Amino acid sequence: MNRTLTYAVVTLAALGLGLSGCQTAPKTEEGKEELHQKVEDALATMKGADPTFAAFLDNAHGYAVFPTVGEGGFIVGGSYGKGEVYERGKKIGNSDMTQASVGAQIGGQAYTEVIAFENKAALDRFIAQDYTMAAEATATALQSGAAAKARWQDGIAVFTYVKGGLMAKAAVGGQRFRFTPIR
Asked: Measuring CA to CA, which residue among 93, 128, 96, 88 is closest to residue 113?
């Protein structure tokens, strides 16, 4: 099985698990520490790729970081990832993201996604039960200087950083998020 097909199969399997009720937070302390380290590493990588990204996040009310989102598809596609949610730089909980799409698409990839919230109202909408982001939401591919040009859309700004793989896509879909506060 080639690597692209493997990404697609693994991603669709993860999507199925995500839709069937996976927990947004890891269950063990080791899992929580591993996810947190992945979040820290992803933020460091993105800040290194774009020096303006750190200032953008510093000015945001909050943000959600999904360090590894796996995506795959062949006509029907999906993606899944787990992450952490921050308000004013302090972790307030965990979240997971699932996405389903349909249309012309083939391949698989892994990427990091960061959703920044302009104000408390935007963050509150996100942490509400089963937040969905419309297909029209535009993500900014992070590269040097991209964050300086990013614009808020309905109180959010979405950044992606491709980690690997190849995905050709002209499809329609939307993302669904679940949030679990720190207890």
From this structure: 96
